[in-house]
Amino acid sequence: MVDQAKIIIRAGRGGNGAVSFRREKFIPKGGPDGGDGGKGGSVYIETDPNRNTLDDFAHQQKFEATDGDKGTGKKMSGAKGEDLIIKVPLGTIVTLKPLSQGKIEVENIAVKGMPREQMGRLITKVIPEIESKEQLIDFDKPGMKMLIAKGGTGGRGNVHFMSARETTPLRAEQGQVGQCFQAELSLKLLADIGLVGLPNAGKSTLLSVLSNARPKVADYEFTTLEPNLGVMKSGENRLVIADFPGLIEGASEGKGLGIKFLKHIERAKVLIHLVPAGESAEGAFEKYRTIKNELLSYGGEIETKKEIVVLSKIDLVSEEKVAEIRKYFMEKKVDILPISSATQKGIKELVAKANTR
């Protein structure tokens, strides 16, 4: 899964104004009628509920709106450039860095039927400076759409430069260049519930039981190599559940697969922490403490989240073993809920706990 990307965003340039004069039968010396250039297209970013990754940006790094058309005679303005809408998943953080827009070169315009020495010329329009600071935008709301890069204004035609002293203006404005940014995209999945735990703790199986997701399930570590998402229906509520790849000790320092996905866990409102029941009470608690320490070491808002600790795979051990583990956790002041994804035992209680906000 691609959850980071760098792209270039460029708004369209405004079209050049026209140098033109009215030339019709019986009107040999009509006045200036050069039209304005069209405005360049702008670039927007919009959240798309049907996207879960930044995979689309792995093969395309440049996004450009179209330029405005140049003006023509008969005071006709050029067509506006088409806007560009970039779709991103909900939860994408966009950091914008302004790029240099470069200089505008002065060009000559040849007016039909006019001697070369009297050719019109374009005058450069001053481009306002854009903010030099980085801008950070969090696309964390459904249907969120924001203007990112403004299209350049079209240049004025020579009809605007006519005056009592200058009845045949031979000048027009160039269109402004559009804003240009380097954008760094970083995705933090938005989920109501996040499943965490050591590899092979039963997270993927639980996700398949709680939701419509069908993740890969197998009896070995690191079955899940990227987050899986599912939707749990509980009454009128629809909760998004994310199964995060197994963390290991040292994940917050870059070990294992977990460091890549710790940032996604930040977004979850509730964490379900799975501890497998296959070991001694002390061993089970040690596994719980290992992941808990990694989450706390990562920092951010993780330590303030609601946590539901679950003893998974209880169908593989005796009831005495389950009671022993529960007692040990209670002595450590940690409430733990025994469940079995295979037999559905404890699932209703888990859903009820996860659904309370």
UniProtKB/TrEMBL annotation:
**InterPro entries assigned:** G_OBG, GTP-bd, GTP-bd_Obg/CgtA, GTP1_OBG_dom, GTP1_OBG_dom_sf, OBG_GTPase, P-loop_NTPase
Q: Which residues form the OBG-type G domain?
A: 191-357
**Residues the record lists as binding Mg(2+):** 204, 224
Q: What is this protein called?
A: GTPase Obg
Q: How does it assemble?
A: Monomer.
Top EC class for this record: hydrolase
* Compositional bias segments (type: Gly residues): 31-41
- Give a GO cellular-component term: cytoplasm
Please describe what this protein does: An essential GTPase which binds GTP, GDP and possibly (p)ppGpp with moderate affinity, with high nucleotide exchange rates and a fairly low GTP hydrolysis rate. Plays a role in control of the cell cycle, stress response, ribosome biogenesis and in those bacteria that undergo differentiation, in morphogenesis control.
Q: What is its EC number?
A: 3.6.5.-
